[in-house]
Amino acid sequence: MAPLRSLGNIRSAFDDFYARTGTDAAGPNAVSPMVASGGTKISTSNHFIHVFTASSSPGFDITSLGPGTVEVLVVAGGGGSGGGGGGAGGLVNSPYTFTTTGPNAIVIGAGGNGGNDGPTAAQGTNGGESYIGPSGAKIKPASGGGAGGVTDTTPHTGNPGGSGGGQAAYTPGSGGTGVAGQGNPGGTAYVYGAGNANAAGGGGAGAAGTPGSNPSDSPPRSGGPGGVGAAIPWMPSDYGTTGPSPGRWFAGGGGGGCWGTNPGQGGAGGGGNGGDPSSEDANAGTINTGGGAGGVGYPPWGSGASGGSGIVAIRYAK
Question: Which has the closest alpha carbon to 77: 108, 50, 114, 39?
């Protein structure tokens, strides 16, 4: 610290103020900002953001803890589809306080595999879980999205998951349930009878999946849209998708397949569109969004698609 000037000497006091070092000016209780490495490190005007699109170890490696909390986004892999759309991967967006320096492994959930609809029906698989830290001490775990239901099984129910898979049609069933705080249920298909039913969309982080339409509706025989995801205002534009409001969107549900010409649209945040008879194969969820896969169009039956892989991002002040 610069030497003290004579009391009452205005010029000396002025000189003393501007002679101080940055450490002097900050005061004895100043705290250094967090220092960390790992993933793709992005600098904004006031923050650093670390984005992880694949599993990583040492992952988020902290050199200096810094003050306060950080913002954490964890999105799991989206569910694969059958006739019903796959549910979006669970989405967790909340503050967290790291208490120790050192590495924090990152696990990114893969998208679930698609099933087969029709005579060789087989259910697809749920998306994989995403989280920070070792498996025995998971930080902010998000559950993988539920697989969509398939037509030629009973009761055609979508799997539970971070968000639930949509129901496939023909006989009564239901959409899969979602995890509270991470996602929403899949839609329940409208059941009218062979040749007329339409599959439901999978749930998204922001809304439930929607049922397929009644054949008397206009337009008839429409697949149910997937539930919309959630907007994260601070995520860089290279990640996620656009949506109905500003921000980058993640964890949209897959749209349901249909018998008609109006397949269900995927929810904002990477949900895949459903198929129809002219393009029966389902559409995959978008990678690194946790979007659920779109459902199979029929007849003829096609193959289900895979959900989108997840993502992890961590933001803290400079």
Answer: 108
